[in-house]
Amino acid sequence: MNRGLQVIVLVALAQACIAGQPKPVENAFIKMEVAGQTMKTDPPHGSTLGYAFSFTLKKPLHLTRVRIDDATTNPPIQLVDDKDPKLKKNNLWAGDSSQIALNPQNFPWMFDGKNSKRVVRITVSSPETGEFSLNQPMLFDRRTKNFMLRLEQGSHKPKRSG
To answer: How far apart are the C-alpha atoms of 14 and 12, rounded to whole Å?
Structure first.
């Protein structure tokens, strides 16, 4: 049985935002609910980092595609490409990126010792609206990043038997 630790660090975008955190973006059709990171540790193989997103529909739409890109980089990096989006309860769409090895080559900004701001572009397609995009900022403070990196370092230690 895999007993790897999974840590989810989500920038929950609620009405009452934590001081300094960006407010959830919205337009006439959607409102962002979650934009954040997921981290999985798998001793002794190391950790992976990914992203989790969700938004609610404010009006009935037939979603045909949801794309989410890290727009902080040039060119943007595709995180999610849902070509058959399904809504959950309460008109909620949710999607996750792939998990990628947490290392300086894949996530240099995680290792810089500074607060980091990332911007994701959410692009939604539907017959009712055509295609529209919103940019959601995400802030990752250095303390949280350092905590995650300490967890990552511990994930290289052999599993204890027992």
So the answer is: 6
Task: Answer yes or no: is 159 within a domain.
Answer: no
Q: Examine residue 75 and say whether the peptide bond preceding it is cis (omega within 30 degrees of 0).
A: yes
CB burial of 133-156 (b: ≥16 within 10 Å; e: otherwise) equals ebebbbebeeeebeebbeebeebe
Helix (H, G, I), strand (E, B) or coil at 114: coil
Residue 160's pLDDT band, with cuts at 50, 70 and 90, is: low
Instruction: Tell me if 131 is assigned to some domain.
Output: no
In a domain, 160, yes or no: no
Q: Has residue 119 got a pLDDT over 80? A: yes
Cβ atoms of 64 and 85 within 8 Å: the answer is yes
- Total domains present in the chain: 1
| Residue 46: domain span | 6-60+86-116+140-154
